[in-house]
Structure formats: structure tokens, C-alpha cells
Amino acid sequence: MASSGLYCHLVALIFVAVTIQQGTCIKCWTCRSDSDPKCADPFDNSTVPISDCKQEPTLEHLPGIRPTMCRKIRQKVEGQWRYFRSCAYLGEPGIEGDERFCLMRTGTYNIFMEYCTCNSKDGCNSSISVRGFSFAGIAVLASLSSWLLLVFQRIW
Ligand SMILES: *[C@@H]1O[C@H](CO)[C@@H](O)[C@H](O)[C@H]1NC(C)=O
Fold this sequence. Notes:
Layout: H1 2-23, E1 27-29, E2 31-32, E3 50-52, E4 69-77, E5 80-88, E6 101-106, E7 111-118, E8 131-134, H2 137-155
Parallel strand pairs: 6-8
Antiparallel strand pairs: 1-3, 2-5, 4-5, 4-7, 6-7
The structure holds 2-acetamido-2-deoxy-beta-D-glucopyranose.
């Protein structure tokens, strides 16, 4: 049926438009706890700067990619917690769209890392992550994005 196909494409286009719209105008907390202890959890937003991601530079190693999300990274290195908050260039908000989930990875040399992304609202990287998610989630994300690619190829 031609009409239902058209409907699907319209929905996909609206989805893309909304995603782009959200992405271009988000503000994120920007700090790192090794230079500002208030960057840690519990987060104290009273003196931490908030950046408009639109104003952030395009990174040299990511040409053409604009920051459209916020992120919060929590890292334990040799028993010390470090926190980083900033605009995010890569990835998807949350895990399968659920911003309560973060990617977690345990590395060598006593390093633990938690990586959270969000784009639900300005300053959403204040405190996310109540629960973690293992890097097995990557497989889900990868299959999701290849599915999206397939959809896009059918549209354009
Ligand atoms: C900063 O935190 C306070 C208390 O949690 C909150 O009410 C306020 O909205 C936050 N400010 C911004 C700019 O998000």
C-alpha cells in the first residue's frame, strides 16, 4: 500500500527533524572534578558554568560532527573518583533512549568508567545514572544504528 509507505516516511522525517531540533540548542554543565570539586556527585550547580553546545568548537578528529547531547563521565582511577561533564559529540542519549542508564566499563589497571549521555533538557548532565549498563549494550546500539541506516537508505 502506497499510502502506508508514505506515512512511514513522514514519521521518520518528523523523527529526524525533532532530533535535529533538540540537538542544536542544548546547554550542558561543563566541568571536571580535578579542577573543581563541585563537579563531583552530589553535583553543586551554583558555580559550575553551563555551556551552549552550539558555541562549542567542532573537533579536529570529528569533522562535521556537532555536539548534540550532554555527557557525564565518572571514572575511578586508583581508588580516586573523577567526574567530567560537558557537551557530547558521539553516541546516543541514554541506553536505548532511557537516560537513567549509562555505559559501564571495567578496565585494566584498576580503572572503572561510567559514561552517561542525555539530551532531554538543558543541564541534564547534572546527575544521571541511578543504574548502570554493561558494554554489552553496545551490541544493541550497533544493531539499532544499522537498522536506522537501512531506514535512511530507503528514504533518500
Ligand atoms: C541548580 O540546582 C538547583 C537545586 O537542585 C535547582 O533548583 C536549579 O534549577 C539548578 N539550576 C539550573 C540552572 O539548572
